[in-house]
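Deliverable D2.4 — example input (C-alpha cells):
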C-alpha cells in the first residue's frame, strides 16, 4: 500500500527548499477553477494541456511544484513532467503550495 501511495503522490521532498531554488508553482486545475481562486505566485497550465506545453515548461529552466484542488491531478502532472526530464514535485492542493511562497 505504501508503495502505491508513493507512486501516486511521489516521494516527500522539502518543498520549502525547492521554492528557495526559484521553483515555479504550476497549478494544473482547469482555467475556470484557477480563475475562481488561485495562489498569487502560480502559473496555470491545465493538466489536459500539459503534454502539448512541455517545451514551454522546459524553457523555464527551474524546478516545478505542481498543485491542484486535492493533490491527485498535481501528482499525475509531476509524474508526467519527470518523464520528460523536468525536475518536478507534487505540492498537493493549491492552498498548500501557495503557503510555501508566503
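Example output (designed residues):
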Amino acid at each position: 500500500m505504501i508503495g502505491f501511495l508513493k507512486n501516486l503522490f511521489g516521494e516527500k521532498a522539502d518543498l520549502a527548499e525547492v521554492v528557495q531554488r526559484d521553483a515555479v508553482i504550476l497549478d494544473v486545475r482547469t482555467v475556470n477553477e484557477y480563475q475562481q481562486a488561485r495562489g498569487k505566485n502560480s502559473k496555470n497550465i491545465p493538466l489536459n494541456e500539459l503534454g502539448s506545453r512541455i517545451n514551454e515548461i522546459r524553457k523555464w529552466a527551474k524546478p516545478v511544484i505542481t498543485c491542484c484542488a486535492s493533490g491527485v491531478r498535481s501528482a499525475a502532472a509531476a509524474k508526467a513532467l519527470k518523464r520528460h526530464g523536468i525536475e518536478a514535485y507534487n505540492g498537493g492542493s493549491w492552498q498548500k503550495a501557495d503557503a510555501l511562497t508566503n
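The chain has six helices and four strands.
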